[in-house]
Specification:
- The two termini are 30 Å apart.
- This protein is 50% helix and 16% strand.
- Strand 2, helix 1 (25-36) and strand 3 (45-50) form a beta-alpha-beta unit.
- The radius of gyration is 19 Å and the shape is globular.
- Strands 1-2-3-5-7-10 form a 6-stranded mixed β-sheet, sandwiched between helices. Strands 4-6-8-9 form a 4-stranded mixed β-sheet.
- It is built from 12 helices and 10 strands.
- By secondary structure, the chain is of the alpha/beta class.
Length: 255
């Protein structure tokens, strides 16, 4: 996995194209630690992408075949690797953008679903392929997919392991948009630059509110929303936003 930092953007690239960027437990752990360590004081965006013609083919099936684990050990290994990826991505206060220039399968699909914003080339395909190897969706798949694309659509993807194209993925809200390959870099750069002009700390609070309120009753969700809005009103970003509005200028966030 290649990790690069430039201009307030942390770029994480799966770089095992020879195995279609399959994700080992070690890679998952490193991914989780990298995202968990990302601070809004240092970054305004995280971009996750893949090298070669795949975003990620998901978990390393060859490693699974050579390392059969008893259920308890498998539970602990998943919790401490792919489970940590879910926790890190959902709790990260820095917005995460998936740049999908190839197929996203299994855990690769789940990582796209866990990202805050996602773009893909028109040629990319997506599959919740766990069932093809006799597994249930993991890396948060059974949680995030029903919330993101709806229960019925999530069941069809999970039960059949079918591949869907990028246009269908966009229709399902699995990604924000499918774009020509020649436009992918530009679309992601445009979004990342726009995020850089917004208050990263407040985006983090917004993300926290949305994720924590998934599944809550509306009365509890409203109470939590009001609580976090109180915290947002205490930020320097809010002070700068109000001052900029009153002075008729663009706000200078993240400075």
């Amino acid at each position: 996995m290649d990790i690069d930092s430039d201009g307030g953007v942390l770029t994480i690239t799966f770089d095992r194209p020879e195995v279609r960027n399959a994700i080992s437990r070690e890679t998952a752990t490193t991914l989780a630690e990298t995202i968990a360590d990302a601070s809004p004081d240092e970054y305004h965006a995280i971009v996750i992408t893949g090298d070669g013609d795949a975003f990620s083919a998901g978990g390393d099936i060859e490693a699974m075949a050579t390392e059969p684990d008893p259920p308890r050990e498998a539970y602990e290994d998943l919790t401490n690797s792919f489970g940590r990826v879910v926790e890190a991505m959902l709790e990260c206060p820095v917005p995460i953008v998936a740049k999908v220039s190839g197929d996203a399968v299994g855990a690769g699909l789940a990582i796209v679903a866990l990202s805050d914003i996602a773009y893909a080339t028109e040629e990319a395909t997506f599959s919740c392929a766990f069932v093809r190897v006799g597994l249930i969706p993991d890396t948060g798949g059974t949680f995030m997919l029903p919330h993101l694309i709806g229960l019925r659509a999530a069941k069809k993807l999970a039960f059949t392991g079918e591949f869907v194209d990028a246009e269908r993925a966009a229709d399902l809200d699995l990604i924000n948009e499918a774009v020509p390959a020649s436009e992918l870099d530009g679309r992601v750069t445009e979004t990342v630059e726009r995020l850089g002009r917004r208050p990263t700390d407040v985006i983090g609070i917004t993300k926290q509110a949305m994720h924590e309120n998934l599944g809550r009753r509306w009365t509890e969700a409203l109470d939590y929303e009001n609580l976090l809005q109180g915290h947002a009103r205490e930020t320097d970003s809010h002070e700068e936003g109000v001052a900029a509005f009153l002075e008729g200028r663009d706000p200078a966030f993240n400075e």
